[in-house]
Design goal:
mainly alpha; 2 domains; two-stranded antiparallel ribbon; elongated; binds iron/sulfur cluster
């Protein structure tokens, strides 16, 4: 299991084209989702997200109306104040509202700790969205090649998935 973030970045970037091909391959084939799920759960159990926190440092955090309401209650301020003080627009999608960021990552990150852990947005609860999240597993796969460059769970899971997907290995070796 690789957890070193420098290695994850290097290996994840190297594997990116292959991981993109793997995602497309899954959309065309029947794949062993239950086996994938078990493997991903085993990998998640072995990685300590609170020691890593890399997603909080490098990724944007989408925020919904429901998240804003929960956060307002937790911080004892109004939803309008949450919007004004803690959110901004995504650099990639101008219409998307995200949590504000500092140079070190999410505005609510303190070292490796989330200072609003009990009221964190749904996307943080479900991250890295490998086995949990909106839409089907296949529909979430398009985001995984990028996530494999910074998230140890995703990198290790994709490597494990590729190993057991015989049809992909056959297609790659052709
Ligand atoms: S809200 Fe908490 S869990 Fe979510 S990105 Fe920010 S620091 Fe991380
Ligand atoms: S989800 Fe991935 S990047 Fe985020 S803390 Fe856990 S292992 Fe690290």
């Amino acid at each position: 299991m690789i957890t070193d973030l420098v290695q994850i970045k290097r290996l994840g970037e190297k594997a990116q084209p292959e991981n993109e091909r793997f995602g497309k391959h899954l959309r065309r084939q029947n794949f062993p989702e239950l086996r994938f799920r078990r493997m991903a759960e085993e990998i998640e159990e072995q990685i300590d997200c609170r020691a890593c926190a890399n997603c909080c440092k490098v990724a944007e955090t989408d925020i919904t109306k429901r998240d804003i309401e929960r956060l307002a209650k937790y911080l004892r301020i109004t939803p309008k104040q949450v919007l004004e003080q803690y959110t901004t627009s995504s650099v990639f999608e101008k219409n998307e509202t995200i949590l504000r960021r500092r140079e070190t990552g999410c505005i609510f990150l303190d070292g490796n700790d989330c200072t609003i852990y009990d009221a964190r947005p749904d996307t943080c609860r479900d991250f890295p969205h490998l086995m949990r999240g909106a839409g089907s597993f296949e529909s979430r796969m398009w985001q995984m090649p990028d996530r494999a460059t910074y998230c140890p769970i995703v990198y290790n899971a994709l490597e494990a998935f590729k190993k057991i997907t015989t049809s992909f290995k056959t297609a790659v070796l052709k």
